Amino acid sequence: MGTPDVYRAADLPEAPPLPPRELVYEAIDRDQERGSAVLFFQLFSVPAIVGAVLASVTTPVVGLAGMIGSGALVVGLRQRTRKRSGAVLRVEEGKLSVRSRDRGRELGTLRLREVEDVGLEIKKIQRVQDGDSPIPAVRFIDSRIAPEVDTARIVITGREGRERIVLTEAFLAHMDATEWLGKIRVFLRKHGWVPENEREDEREDEDDGSSEA
Predict the structure, then answer these.
(1) How many CB atoms are located within 10 Å of the residue 157 CB?
(2) Cα dist. 93→19, 97, 112, 196 in Å?
(3) Element (DSSP H or E) covering residue 179
(4) For 194, phi and psi rounded to 5 degrees?
(5) Most-buried pick from 30, 136, 206, 208 (CB within 10 A)?
């Protein structure tokens, strides 16, 4: 009696992993962080002014304490702003909700099918540029206006442009905003979003096909 043939069921392909529901947009302006003039003013001038005022109206000891405290406050506020600015985008059941990172307040909610575009709002500015001296204090005094540059912030546009979700109040370096724009568009595409201009192309192709038939 022969050995019965054994058939193995073909292995089913693994289901593709689900896309992440959230994307954290960390809005850090590297152009501003590279400049030292504003940082020098904040770290040295503000504590010095606070210390001098307190010392003149109270005692030198209180002035010194105020100087140290205000310096620590400036550093803390700077770090907090750097780490918490931006937005959190969440997609759930075909709905996009956006909230700010700093206070967690709701910035807006849209159905994915109502999102027409994710783009940049451009603004030209002139930054303060440090001087060339190796001494920080002299660089601050010798600061000058740099040539005009583009800054940008990311805006999500709803149906027919009636709804706009601005991800940050501040305009950031154009390069940084462009980099994050690409990440956000990829994130939304993974959840099935299609920009409005691509939907129009698809509709035109469908119309052409039906007319030929």
Answers:
(1) 19
(2) 13, 11, 9, 20
(3) helix 174-190
(4) -130, 130
(5) 136
Enumerate long-range contacts of 178-181, CB under 8 Å, 24 or more apart: 178/120, 178/152, 180/25, 180/27, 180/154, 181/118, 181/119, 181/120, 181/154
Please, what is the end-to-end C-alpha distance for the chain in angstroms? 61
Answer for the pair 126, 148: CB distance below 8 angstroms, yes or no: yes
Residue whose entry in the numeric block shows the structure tokens 């803390």: 76
Report d(CA 165, CA 151) in Å as an integer.
18
Long-range contacts of 172-175 (CB under 8 A, 24+ apart): 172/27, 172/28, 172/29, 172/31, 173/29, 173/30, 173/31, 173/32, 174/120, 174/122, 174/149, 174/150, 175/30
Check: CB of residue 165 under 8 Å from CB of residue 188. Answer: no
Consecutive H or E run containing 80: helix 60-84
Tokens of 199: 């939907």
One-letter identity of residue 57: V
pLDDT tens for 165-192 read 999 988 998 999 999 999 999 999 999 9
Backbone angles phi, psi at 123, to 5 degrees: -140, 135
d(CA 102, CA 74): 17
Residues 189 and 164: beta-carbon distance below 8 Å: no
Phi then psi dihedrals of residue 97, to 5 deg: -120, 140
pTM of the model: 0.64
Mean pLDDT computed over 147-171: 88
